[in-house]
Amino acid sequence: MIEVIRGDITALTVDAVVNAANSSLLGGGGVDGAIHRAAGPRLLQACQAIGGCPTGESRITPGFDLDAQWVIHVVGPVWRGGSHGEPDMLKSCYSNSLDLARQHKVRTIAFPCISTGVYGYPQREAAKIAVAVMQHAAKDFERVICCCFSAEDESIYKQLLA
Ligand code: APR
Protein backbone atom coordinates (compact mmCIF):
# COMPACT_ATOMS: atom_id res chain seq x y z
CA MET A 1 0.00 0.00 0.00
CA ILE A 2 1.69 3.24 -1.15
CA GLU A 3 0.30 6.50 0.19
CA VAL A 4 1.02 10.13 -0.61
CA ILE A 5 0.89 12.52 2.33
CA ARG A 6 1.69 16.21 2.32
CA GLY A 7 3.30 17.43 5.54
CA ASP A 8 6.16 17.24 7.98
CA ILE A 9 7.69 13.76 8.08
CA THR A 10 8.62 14.20 11.76
CA ALA A 11 4.93 14.33 12.66
CA LEU A 12 4.13 10.92 11.19
CA THR A 13 3.48 7.89 13.39
CA VAL A 14 5.32 5.21 11.47
CA ASP A 15 7.88 2.54 12.37
CA ALA A 16 10.62 4.29 10.36
CA VAL A 17 11.20 7.68 8.81
CA VAL A 18 13.84 8.05 6.11
CA ASN A 19 16.21 10.98 6.41
CA ALA A 20 17.75 12.69 3.37
CA ALA A 21 21.16 13.13 4.97
CA ASN A 22 24.64 13.99 3.74
CA SER A 23 27.64 11.68 3.81
CA SER A 24 28.86 13.03 7.16
CA LEU A 25 25.53 12.09 8.83
CA LEU A 26 26.11 15.10 11.10
CA GLY A 27 22.87 16.87 10.26
CA GLY A 28 22.06 19.78 8.00
CA GLY A 29 19.08 21.76 6.78
CA GLY A 30 15.90 20.62 5.09
CA VAL A 31 14.41 17.35 6.24
CA ASP A 32 17.75 16.40 7.86
CA GLY A 33 17.51 19.44 10.10
CA ALA A 34 13.86 18.78 10.91
CA ILE A 35 14.51 15.15 11.86
CA HIS A 36 17.48 16.01 14.06
CA ARG A 37 15.51 18.77 15.78
CA ALA A 38 12.59 16.45 16.47
CA ALA A 39 14.67 13.42 17.47
CA GLY A 40 16.90 15.39 19.83
CA PRO A 41 20.65 15.38 20.49
CA ARG A 42 20.91 11.61 20.96
CA LEU A 43 20.35 11.23 17.23
CA LEU A 44 23.49 13.21 16.46
CA GLN A 45 25.43 11.14 18.97
CA ALA A 46 24.25 7.93 17.33
CA CYS A 47 25.19 9.31 13.90
CA GLN A 48 28.62 10.40 15.12
CA ALA A 49 29.21 6.82 16.26
CA ILE A 50 28.42 5.55 12.75
CA GLY A 51 31.00 7.83 11.21
CA GLY A 52 29.48 8.67 7.85
CA CYS A 53 27.70 7.00 4.94
CA PRO A 54 28.55 6.85 1.23
CA THR A 55 26.13 8.23 -1.37
CA GLY A 56 23.46 5.69 -2.29
CA GLU A 57 23.77 3.78 0.97
CA SER A 58 21.67 3.89 4.14
CA ARG A 59 22.30 3.52 7.88
CA ILE A 60 19.77 3.00 10.68
CA THR A 61 19.52 4.54 14.12
CA PRO A 62 16.81 4.69 16.78
CA GLY A 63 14.30 7.53 16.43
CA PHE A 64 14.88 8.73 20.01
CA ASP A 65 12.40 11.58 20.67
CA LEU A 66 10.56 10.96 17.37
CA ASP A 67 7.38 8.87 17.36
CA ALA A 68 9.12 6.66 14.82
CA GLN A 69 11.15 3.79 16.30
CA TRP A 70 13.80 4.11 13.61
CA VAL A 71 15.45 6.70 11.41
CA ILE A 72 16.93 5.33 8.20
CA HIS A 73 19.54 7.82 7.05
CA VAL A 74 20.27 7.78 3.34
CA VAL A 75 22.60 9.92 1.25
CA GLY A 76 21.14 10.92 -2.08
CA PRO A 77 23.11 11.97 -5.15
CA VAL A 78 23.70 15.62 -5.92
CA TRP A 79 22.12 16.37 -9.32
CA ARG A 80 24.87 17.11 -11.85
CA GLY A 81 22.83 16.95 -15.04
CA GLY A 82 21.85 13.29 -15.01
CA SER A 83 24.80 11.63 -16.71
CA HIS A 84 26.93 11.04 -13.62
CA GLY A 85 25.09 7.99 -12.34
CA GLU A 86 22.52 10.01 -10.42
CA PRO A 87 19.49 7.89 -11.42
CA ASP A 88 21.12 4.64 -10.30
CA MET A 89 22.35 6.25 -7.10
CA LEU A 90 18.88 7.56 -6.28
CA LYS A 91 17.37 4.15 -7.02
CA SER A 92 19.91 2.61 -4.61
CA CYS A 93 18.84 5.08 -1.92
CA TYR A 94 15.28 3.80 -2.04
CA SER A 95 16.11 0.12 -2.44
CA ASN A 96 18.83 0.10 0.24
CA SER A 97 16.50 1.91 2.67
CA LEU A 98 13.74 -0.62 2.06
CA ASP A 99 16.20 -3.51 2.48
CA LEU A 100 17.35 -2.08 5.82
CA ALA A 101 13.72 -1.58 6.84
CA ARG A 102 12.94 -5.23 6.06
CA GLN A 103 15.91 -6.38 8.14
CA HIS A 104 14.47 -4.47 11.10
CA LYS A 105 10.92 -5.82 10.65
CA VAL A 106 9.64 -2.34 9.78
CA ARG A 107 6.00 -2.45 8.64
CA THR A 108 5.29 1.23 8.03
CA ILE A 109 7.86 3.60 6.52
CA ALA A 110 7.81 7.20 5.30
CA PHE A 111 10.16 8.71 2.71
CA PRO A 112 10.86 12.37 1.95
CA CYS A 113 11.57 13.32 -1.66
CA ILE A 114 15.25 12.42 -1.47
CA SER A 115 17.74 14.67 -3.32
CA THR A 116 15.06 17.02 -4.69
CA GLY A 117 15.81 19.90 -2.33
CA VAL A 118 19.35 21.14 -1.71
CA TYR A 119 20.71 18.38 -3.95
CA GLY A 120 18.73 19.70 -6.90
CA TYR A 121 17.36 16.48 -8.39
CA PRO A 122 14.44 17.26 -10.73
CA GLN A 123 11.30 16.38 -8.80
CA ARG A 124 9.42 14.43 -11.46
CA GLU A 125 12.43 12.36 -12.48
CA ALA A 126 13.14 11.56 -8.84
CA ALA A 127 9.51 10.67 -8.15
CA LYS A 128 9.43 8.23 -11.10
CA ILE A 129 12.43 6.40 -9.65
CA ALA A 130 11.00 6.43 -6.12
CA VAL A 131 7.59 5.12 -7.18
CA ALA A 132 9.08 2.31 -9.27
CA VAL A 133 11.16 1.05 -6.33
CA MET A 134 8.31 1.46 -3.84
CA GLN A 135 5.83 -0.41 -6.04
CA HIS A 136 8.26 -3.31 -6.29
CA ALA A 137 8.68 -3.42 -2.50
CA ALA A 138 5.16 -2.50 -1.33
CA LYS A 139 4.11 -6.15 -0.84
CA ASP A 140 6.62 -6.43 2.03
CA PHE A 141 5.14 -3.53 3.99
CA GLU A 142 1.84 -2.46 5.48
CA ARG A 143 2.33 1.18 4.49
CA VAL A 144 4.92 2.91 2.31
CA ILE A 145 4.40 6.66 2.53
CA CYS A 146 5.69 9.36 0.20
CA CYS A 147 5.80 12.32 2.57
CA CYS A 148 5.77 15.39 0.34
CA PHE A 149 6.53 18.79 1.78
CA SER A 150 5.28 20.76 -1.22
CA ALA A 151 1.96 20.66 -3.05
CA GLU A 152 3.93 20.26 -6.28
CA ASP A 153 5.57 17.05 -5.10
CA GLU A 154 2.25 15.80 -3.78
CA SER A 155 0.59 16.23 -7.18
CA ILE A 156 3.52 14.64 -9.01
CA TYR A 157 3.35 11.54 -6.78
CA LYS A 158 -0.44 11.35 -6.99
CA GLN A 159 -0.29 11.50 -10.78
CA LEU A 160 2.35 8.77 -10.94
CA LEU A 161 0.42 6.54 -8.53
CA ALA A 162 -2.99 7.09 -10.17
N1 APR B 1 9.26 16.79 6.13
C1 APR B 1 9.21 16.23 4.89
N2 APR B 1 9.90 16.68 3.84
C2 APR B 1 10.69 17.77 4.05
C3 APR B 1 10.81 18.41 5.30
C4 APR B 1 10.04 17.87 6.37
N3 APR B 1 10.07 18.40 7.60
N4 APR B 1 11.67 19.45 5.17
C5 APR B 1 12.07 19.47 3.88
N5 APR B 1 11.47 18.48 3.20
C6 APR B 1 11.59 18.11 1.79
C7 APR B 1 12.09 19.16 0.85
O1 APR B 1 11.05 20.08 0.52
C8 APR B 1 12.46 18.28 -0.34
O2 APR B 1 11.30 17.98 -1.08
O3 APR B 1 12.55 17.07 1.68
C9 APR B 1 12.97 16.99 0.32
C10 APR B 1 14.49 16.82 0.30
O4 APR B 1 15.10 18.10 0.42
P1 APR B 1 16.40 18.31 1.37
O5 APR B 1 15.97 18.18 2.78
O6 APR B 1 17.03 19.58 0.93
O7 APR B 1 17.33 17.07 1.04
P2 APR B 1 18.25 16.77 -0.23
O8 APR B 1 17.81 17.50 -1.44
O9 APR B 1 18.36 15.27 -0.28
O10 APR B 1 19.66 17.40 0.20
C11 APR B 1 20.36 16.79 1.26
O11 APR B 1 20.50 18.84 2.46
O12 APR B 1 19.73 19.22 4.57
C12 APR B 1 20.86 18.92 3.84
O13 APR B 1 22.17 17.63 5.35
C13 APR B 1 21.39 17.56 4.18
O14 APR B 1 23.40 17.93 2.96
C14 APR B 1 22.16 17.25 2.93
C15 APR B 1 21.29 17.83 1.84
Written description of the protein model:
- It is a single chain.
- The two termini are about 15 Å apart.
- The protein has helices at about 30-40, 40-50, 85-105, 125-135, 150-160, and strands at about 1-5, 15-20, 60, 70-75, 110, 145-150.
- The mean pLDDT is about 100.
- A 6-stranded mixed beta sheet has the order 1-6-5-2-4-3, sandwiched between helices.
- Helix 3 (about 85-105) runs parallel beside helix 4 and helix 4 crosses helix 5 (about 150-160).
- It is built from 5 helices and 6 strands.
- It has one domain: Leucine Aminopeptidase, subunit E, domain 1 (3-Layer(aba) Sandwich).
- The chain is α/β, with parallel strands linked by helices and about 160 residues long.
